[in-house]
Amino acid sequence: xxxxxxxxxxxxxRERQIVDVLYRLGRGTAAxxxxxxxxxxSNSTVRTQLRVLESKGYVRHQEEGLRYVYMPTVxxxxxxxxxxxxxxxxxxxxxxxxxxxALLGGESRVSDEExxxxxxxxxxxxxxxx
Length: 130
Known about the structure:
Blueprint (H helix, E strand, L loop, with lengths): L6 H4 L2 H13 L4 H7 L6 H14 L2 E6 L2 E6 L3 H16 L4 H10 L6 H17 L2
Antiparallel strand pairs: 1-2
Helix pairs in contact: 2-4, 3-4
């Protein structure tokens, strides 16, 4: 199953953008995907990228009349986990603690609700490891 392959090492930036659009839309035609992309690409480029993604096993299509409707095959949580692992390894020396420290000590403001959610997650992680 393609979920075992890390997305960050297999997909190009443009391919990741297309997969991101499909996660947001759930499913879409090449024209819908093209419209939702952050940069303007030709229809043929989007279709080519979709064929490549399909050959890599990251999207599939269904025929609906004369249109192909594409959807992701890799669950979003798998993609998220892969991207996060890559981020931690690349920028935080493999340390989750350094990532959290950067989030909490950075320029972005963490709300009280988010801090409480983080505290709850830490508490649950501690009780699960016992």
